[in-house]
Amino acid sequence: MATTNDLKNGMVLKLEGGQLWSVVEFQHVKPGKGGAFVRTKLKNVLSGKVVDKTFNAGTKVETATVDRRGMQFSYKDGADFVFMDTQTFDQLTISPETVGDAANYLLEGQECTVAIHEGNPLYIELPAAVELTIEYTEPGVQGDRSTGGTKPARLETGYEIGVPLFITTGEKIKVDTRTGEYLGRVNS
After folding, report:
1. Distance CA 58, CA 20 (A)
2. Cα dihedral 162/164/168/173 (nearest 10)
3. What are phi and psi of 106, to 5 degrees?
4. Residues in domain Elongation factor P C-terminal (predicted)?
């Protein structure tokens, strides 16, 4: 248990029937009249929904222990994803629902962070950008290079994103894992 005076960004709270909420930001407010309160922005750990919530100062809140471990994606076992703990070398099987959109950017051997609460994986955190090879894209038409147009390209993970017209099959590019946007070429 903690009070709202102890809140920190990234802290995970257990509210409303055991739901886990991560503190995105908080602000202590002391108005001229009345009691102090804490204005927070909370993100649901499982659904990703963000809500604003206000607590009276000093209110007791239940905190949840979330273990964030460095893991490496090993392989896919049917629909499930198998990760290996980089410290203990233990294997952890995670459902596709928990992996979510991270699956679009996962390659075997890739490092990421897995958040675990009471033995259950909650979500996977990838680096902000990853380097992936283009498996296939249509060739750009000569003369198209001056326009800022994009074309679809299939990455080695099977995910499709929009890339500039000058990008060719086999090139390595940087992709933003939060938005799925093309960030640039990787010079090898």
Report:
1. 20
2. -70
3. -85, 130
4. 130-185
